[in-house]
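Input record, target 12 of the design panel.
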């Protein structure tokens, strides 16, 4: 180099001179940094490659995730390998006709070798894995390389005041140098933080995936390819969550609320501007108090105006979710846990309120305050203070993110056990009769207490991890404040700063660390909100099993002809409930479905009402496929009296009026008279205003059934479905109800599911369902004459009836003569 007209360092500089003109010499820096990095590559690379190549195994492609962030890692590594020669070539062009300094050439060569090794190791870790490895993420060698590379670029801040560096940007050469450094800084920092996440590697330990996959195969299950034992990050699918939240923040269609949102954002900007001047005017106490009072007034006004927007968000979320739940299929509602669903809705709604407030009015302003404060530190004081602030901020945010992500699993498990405890409580209270029947009060209390204990254990872990996070944050903030105060005191003693500057530093450092301290809290609250919203998002993700066709129209009701054409259906795959069911109900006819329990009778009713869609065949009303019409129009023409009637926790009048919300009180009473319950209602102290209790438990089974019949009569549908409508009634009431239903069903198409055969003797057609198929069909007399299934069922019920009648007669004969009541009329008992 000397013979070529150049030297290793610049003219007048040697490698022995490390600190010159207030900074590290570029010659020393660009020699030390690539040398350390390449040394790491040589020392750790050999052992690492041996471990992966000789002692490892190829990773199965199905376990390797596809990730755009991994592609970004490769691109940045390649660019960093190329920027070294590019920088050296540019320096050589600037030094022409002289040869470039030796350290420039050395840096270009060593940098290319080091980053090429890092890229090769990155590819190696994606393709192979050491045998017996039960950890996830990148190796320590690669993480250390990225960390040292990023730390080396941060060392450039030490030379902030040195004229040998580019910070002043006074010439085009310094500007280009700065752009090279900025690229290296951002790229190495991005690689380091991406390396902590390891986007190109499995999210779980690879050997655990292999073992679980083999175990699932042995048990005949599906391989656990995409599953994650460890809970995912709360920031997963962040973009999708934000897109779901955005419509709730902007009050569409409400001009007043939209103006309030814009006004709140304007006040937020004014509040930030006021906060900027607080430290600057600190020396003037009067001005300070005025500024602080103005800031508090603006903040309070903004919070007050935001209340209406927050209420809008809460209302829209709850209403949309409530509507979505009502549109879900019967299958989902039969398997839901009411307490868990309600708890998820409550927690999810409150989390949305807090999430929007913290993001808009806390996170963005805090970031702005931090950036402004750092710029002011560097410009008013010097680079050392900016470096201290930057290092503390980076450590603070990094450790906050890492620890918070680590403790996410405790919060998520705590929510799960909280839902479980509430679900157990609601389930036990809803079934309190069963609890008392079996004297199981102590058992239920014990189950509830056990669920609470599990919840409290996880709650303790959550709070303990929070305490650890707070202590870590306080240690970082305290260390930064101590270092800055000592440095400021040193400059005061040297005469470079005045005492007033020390006071100004203290004010500004508090101005910086106060939002920074809250930033950790905001991050925890936002992450917790995302966790709390997960269950609610799962409810939104529940698909509607029965959907209206895109081009569905309204049902054009004409006569009420019902056709089942080769209908097949199953609740679970591989177990058919209905197989090739075909029958026709003519307008105005009554068709009865009979058969053993589980034969598929009630399923036919549910399919006609479109609680489920058929999986084979077709159901038509007046020639129209019911899957091609809107559900609302179909159900408007159908009235159902179910076997198990559940009433709302309201009075009797409103429960009957539910059949037609617009009905008058007189129409409600007429429906009750038709259902033979009017006189019974009037016998209650409060009459039609009598509260029926939760699920109607204050009424007897027969009274609930008659209220349901009155509700259907009030609806006045053209098609009536009776699912064991009189199963809970006594003999006399049953006869009265049958007479009432006979009047109601005149000229209406009716399908009756019956167990008591005596109630469907007059049906126009009786279908005997067996194992999901229609085994027999015909009128009562025809089926008796065949001597088949229907005839056997009829004989068994007659024999049971005769046995019950004989038992009643024998019981009366054994009583004293004066206690014998008049002989009752013969009835039929349901079995």
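The sequence produced for target 12 reads:
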């Amino acid at each position: 180099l000397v013979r070529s007209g150049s030297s290793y360092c610049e003219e007048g500089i040697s490698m022995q001179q490390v600190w010159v003109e207030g900074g590290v010499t570029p010659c020393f820096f660009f020699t030390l940094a690539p040398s350390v990095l390449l040394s790491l590559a040589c020392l750790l690379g050999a052992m690492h490659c041996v471990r992966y190549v000789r002692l490892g195994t190829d990773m199965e492609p199905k376990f390797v995730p596809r990730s755009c962030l991994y592609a970004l890692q490769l691109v940045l590594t390649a660019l960093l390998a190329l920027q070294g020669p590019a920088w050296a070539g540019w320096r050589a062009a600037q030094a022409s006709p002289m040869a470039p300094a030796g350290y420039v050439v050395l840096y270009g060569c060593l940098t290319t070798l080091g980053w090429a090794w890092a890229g090769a190791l990155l590819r190696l870790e994606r393709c192979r894995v050491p045998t017996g490895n039960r950890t996830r993420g990148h190796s320590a060698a690669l993480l250390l390389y990225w960390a040292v590379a990023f730390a080396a670029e941060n060392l450039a801040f030490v030379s902030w005041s040195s004229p040998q560096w580019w910070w002043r940007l006074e010439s085009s050469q310094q500007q280009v140098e700065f752009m090279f450094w900025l690229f290296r800084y951002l790229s190495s920092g991005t690689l380091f933080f991406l390396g902590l996440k390891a986007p190109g590697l499995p999210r779980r330990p690879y050997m655990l995936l292999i073992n679980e996959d083999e175990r699932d195969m042995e048990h005949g299950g599906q391989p656990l390819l995409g599953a994650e034992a460890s809970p995912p990050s709360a920031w997963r699918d962040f973009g999708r969550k934000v897109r779901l939240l955005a419509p709730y923040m902007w009050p569409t269609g409400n001009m007043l609320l939209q103006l309030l949102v814009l006004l709140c954002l304007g006040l937020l900007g004014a509040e930030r501007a006021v906060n900027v001047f607080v430290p600057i005017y600190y020396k003037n106490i009067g001005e300070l108090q005025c500024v602080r009072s103005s800031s508090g007034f603006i903040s309070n006004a903004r919070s007050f105006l935001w209340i209406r927007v927050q209420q809008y968000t809460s209302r829209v979320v709850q209403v949309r979710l409530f509507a979505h739940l009502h549109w879900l299929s019967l299958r989902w509602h039969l398997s839901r846990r009411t307490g868990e669903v309600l708890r998820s809705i409550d927690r999810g709604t409150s989390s949305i309120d807090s999430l929007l407030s913290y993001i808009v009015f806390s996170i963005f302003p805090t970031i702005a305050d931090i950036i402004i404060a750092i710029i002011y530190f560097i410009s008013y004081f010097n680079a050392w203070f900016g470096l201290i602030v930057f290092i503390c901020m980076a450590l603070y945010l990094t450790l906050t993110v890492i620890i918070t992500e680590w403790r996410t699993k405790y919060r998520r498990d705590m929510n799960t056990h909280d839902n479980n405890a509430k679900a157990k409580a609601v389930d036990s209270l809803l079934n309190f009769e069963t609890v008392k029947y079996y004297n199981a009060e102590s058992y239920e209390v014990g189950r509830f207490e056990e669920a609470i204990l599990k919840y409290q254990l996880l709650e303790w872990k959550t709070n303990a991890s929070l305490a650890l996070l707070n202590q870590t944050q306080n240690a970082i903030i305290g260390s930064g404040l101590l270092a800055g105060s000592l440095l400021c005191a040193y400059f005061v003693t040297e005469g470079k700063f005045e005492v007033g500057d020390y006071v100004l530093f203290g004010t500004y450092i508090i101005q910086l660390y106060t939002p920074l301290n809250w930033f950790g809290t905001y991050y925890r609250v936002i992450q917790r909100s995302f966790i709390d919203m997960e269950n609610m998002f799962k409810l939104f993700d529940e698909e509607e099993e029965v959907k209206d066709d895109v081009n569905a129209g309204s049902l054009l009701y004409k006569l009420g002809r019902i056709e089942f054409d080769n209908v097949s259906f199953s609740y679970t795959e591989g177990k058919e409930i209905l197989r090739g069911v075909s029958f026709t109900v003519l307008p105005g006819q009554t068709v009865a479905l009979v058969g053993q329990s589980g034969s598929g009778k009630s399923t036919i009713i549910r399919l006609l009402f479109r609680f489920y869609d058929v999986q084979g065949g077709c159901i038509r009303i007046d020639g129209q496929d019911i899957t091609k019409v809107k559900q609302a129009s179909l159900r408007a023409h159908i009235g159902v009296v179910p076997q198990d009637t559940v009433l709302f926790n309201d009075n009797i009048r409103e429960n009957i009026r539910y059949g037609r919300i617009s009905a008058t009180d007189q129409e409600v009473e007429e429906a009750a008279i038709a259902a033979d319950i009017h006189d019974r209602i009037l016998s209650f102290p409060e009459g039609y205003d009598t509260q029926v209790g939760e699920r109607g438990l204050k009424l007897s089974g027969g009274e609930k059934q008659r209220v349901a019949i009155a509700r259907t009569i009030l609806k006045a549908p053209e098609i009536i479905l009776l699912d064991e409508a009189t199963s809970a009634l006594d003999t006399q009431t049953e006869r009265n109800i049958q007479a009432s239903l006979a009047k109601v069903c005149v000229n209406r198409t009716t399908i009756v599911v019956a167990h008591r055969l005596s109630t469907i003797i007059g049906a126009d057609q009786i279908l005997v369902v067996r194992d999901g198929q229609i085994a027999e069909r015909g009128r009562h007399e025809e089926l008796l004459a065949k001597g088949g299934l229907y005839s056997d069922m009829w004989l068994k019920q007659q024999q049971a009836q005769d046995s019950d009648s004989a038992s009643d007669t024998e019981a009366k004969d054994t009583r004293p003569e004066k206690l014998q009541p008049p002989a009752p009329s013969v009835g039929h008992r349901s079995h």
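The CA atoms of residues 172 and 202 lie 46 Å apart.
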